[in-house]
Task: structure prediction
Amino acid sequence: MQMSQVSEQEVSPTLHTEGREILGVEGLSLAFGGVKALSHVSFSVKEGSITSVIGPNGAGKTSLFNSISGFYTPNEGTVKFLGQTMNNVPAPDRAELGMARTFQNIALFKGMTVLDNIKLGRHAHMKTNPLDALLYFGRARKEEAELRKEVEEKIIDFLEIDHIRNQSVAALSYGLQKRVELARALAMKPKILLLDEPVAGMNREETEDMARFILDVKEEWGVTVLMVEHDMGLVMDLSDHVVCINFGQVITEGLPRDVQSHPDVISAYLGSGDVAALRKKFKEGK
Result:
């Protein structure tokens, strides 16, 4: 994907500066033994935006995502979602509140069909009691019918995967598996969608399709997106706001055009001050 050439008049910071804060990360620190993965990381995500976290390999991006989504417990700092402190809220409860995510390494049930994998995403919102579920009557049957209707008519159609809905996930290409994982996350009815390297390992056509879906999730579904991604072309094209971290610390954040020319970002990626070389690297999606 080519990096957009956009004038200052075409890029407006209004969305990020005026929107309500949906996610706040304040002074987040995380250590494994004597190794600091995160050190006093702070930034916010505005409702209705696409915010990207970038940085070299080993910068702490996945550790940050795991701390936000509840898989890791930070040593210091707070994560706030919709104004509520999440530090003591387990990962499943965060999902129920509207925080959904995908994973860098695909986390699907390979022996199940596409449709069944997607429906699992709604598990946190199901109200059926164990007896109803066991006997499959009353509320259980009604919930199942409503869920299947929504998944088939909205999510599957949206992601253009109707032709594989009854196939086993194990038989799908890598790119289609990533799309199914996105579908499962959307089935969770997210208010914020955390995407961990959504186009990693994809070819150009698959990347362009995923970029289109991410934009549509924001614009048509009204879902806020927080994304970790190495494809700089994708990041610069889609993002309203970019946060760059290195060695577990935020080194700069702001509009994409400002971040890509920041000297600390250039140093983190190249170890030099060659702005032209960095822009070329971003354009190539490296």
Q: What stands out?
A: The two ends are 11 Å apart (CA to CA).
